[in-house]
Amino acid sequence: MKNASKIVTLVFNILIGALSIMAIVGYVVMPFWTISVGVKFTPETKEAIMKIVDQSLNGDSGNTAYIDGKVNGSPVLMSANLKTGGETENGNGNGDSSKNKDTEMTRKIIEALLDNFANDKVDVSVPIKFSTSAIFSSLTAKDSTPVDKIIRSAVKESMDDKHLDKIITDVTKSTAKAMVDIIPTLLTDEQAADFEEGMEYIGLDEDYVKEQAAELAEALTTGKNTKNGQNKTLTKDGFTEDYLIPLMEDIMTKASDPSKSQYAREGNDVYADMNKTIFGMREENNASDFKKANENSSETYERAMYNGENYFEMKNGKKVINAEGRNIIKKLFKEQAFDTIWKDTDNIKLDTDTLKKLIQDAIGDDSSKNPDGNNTGNAMGYKLAGTATLAIVGYTAAATEEGGNGENTEETTDVTDELADNLTAQIDENTRNVLMIVMKVLAGLLIFSVVVWAYQLVKVIVNTLTGKMRTKMKLSIWCGWYPFMFFALIPNIALLALRKGWIPGLPAETASTLSLIKLTFNSSGMFAFIAAMAFIVIWIPYKIFAKKARD
């Protein structure tokens, strides 16, 4: 029995040593402090955001979205040229009607997005991590460099491509579905009826149209084509060939089936009609090329007459557009559509570089300043809100400055550096000195915590080797996890109390607002806290077995 007690006590000592090592490694390796900020979309989140949207669009709170005669926000969600009543040429106020219609459209689009985010429970969060090495470096620093270092490390972590990729992946899936919901809201009842009738006439049912709209939306927002199991990045050069041409072929197959298509039952030949259409595209391309080559001439291109040209071939038992036809379609769409729409990007997708550029443009925008150079809070706020909207919708056209010429500057400062520069530039010398004192105190707290666990480790090793089987753990339990208590446990409990309204006199609106924000705190003392709690759990059985082993 005594030997068994010794073995069990030895196992406990090994566990104590392992937990002590875990606590030390946590303090050295983990970021000193991590603040995770984000939003988890729920029906409640949607309702709260829509209240803010309504206030902004209607100007009820004074923070109107209409700034300098424009809606300051996303070119996708908010037309850059929405007019207010004062902008009508005849001054009769007809612009109010236009503004109201555009405002209603904007609201519908935002609501459709939020509905899909809530249904998919989209969770968007960014961790802000403060470096442990920067805290320790404050002990030997002769200037305030550690302050800049800790800010830069926090910015770098929050703008990490891995985190941004996750945000993009999560929101674009919901955005694709939202776009399918949005399109019908933009049509009048008459237009919607005509569209449905036209689709039925060529053999396309409602489910097929919705499925293709969803795939197209996903292609536009994620840059990926999931049709037929493919997974391609869609560029403006290959977009039509990768997606639209197979879609056109699929629609022609359905339109040529008399069992599904009234168009076919009436004796129409979809392939003969499409041959004429592609021929017309060819002549359109030729006219465009002629105009470019003779731009200083008054000559006009003489279009050829259709003479039975065939742009189809049989492939695997199915009629498909041949290489010549594909090139004609590709050239037409590229030059007359995509080159205009996507001027400044080679990829029809939202990626981390694009998202960073949007943030960078928002930071560097001077349009939010008054003539005296001071920032106006409303303008800057809506500019940042517009940037966030761009990211969510997956808008990848050039993020040009309002009123700018649309030109894109290739050489730009990395947004992480620019963010860090902006933040560090706002800290005056006195604040830096205070921050340095705080960092030195925190460094001392870290060193104390590491020493506590190092002492616990040495003590358990020495006691085990010298035959004194039991090692006391009070110091580690009481003093080993102060960083976690101060920077994670207390803030998280305080935040919970605020959200639940447990604090007397706290306005209900404050608790409601906080409940919309996903905010959590963590610290490098997390492993030390786990170790201390484990010590409390094993305290009594460890004491019993150690006593038996000693006796």
How would you characterize the overall build of this protein?
With 551 residues, the chain is mostly helical. It is 63% helix and 6% strand. The protein has 20 helices and 7 strands. The protein has helices at residues 2-29, 43-58, 95-119, 132-137, 145-158, 161-185, 189-201, 206-222, 239-255, 262-265, 270-293, 323-341, 352-364, 377-393, 415-425, 429-465, 474-479, 482-500, 508-516, 526-550; strands spanning 33-40, 66-67, 70-71, 123-130, 312-315, 318-321, 517-523. The strands form 3 sheets. A 3-stranded antiparallel sheet has the order 4-1-7. A hairpin with a 2-residue loop joins β2 (66-67) and β3 (70-71). The chain is elongated and about 105 Å long. The N and C termini lie close together (11 Å).
Outline the secondary-structure elements.
Elements: H1 2-29, E1 33-40, H2 43-58, E2 66-67, E3 70-71, H3 95-119, E4 123-130, H4 132-137, H5 145-158, H6 161-185, H7 189-201, H8 206-222, H9 239-255, H10 262-265, H11 270-293, E5 312-315, E6 318-321, H12 323-341, H13 352-364, H14 377-393, H15 415-425, H16 429-465, H17 474-479, H18 482-500, H19 508-516, E7 517-523, H20 526-550
Antiparallel strand pairs: 1-4, 1-7, 2-3, 5-6
Helix pairs in contact: 1-16, 1-20, 2-3, 3-6, 5-15, 6-8, 9-12, 11-12, 13-14, 13-15, 18-19
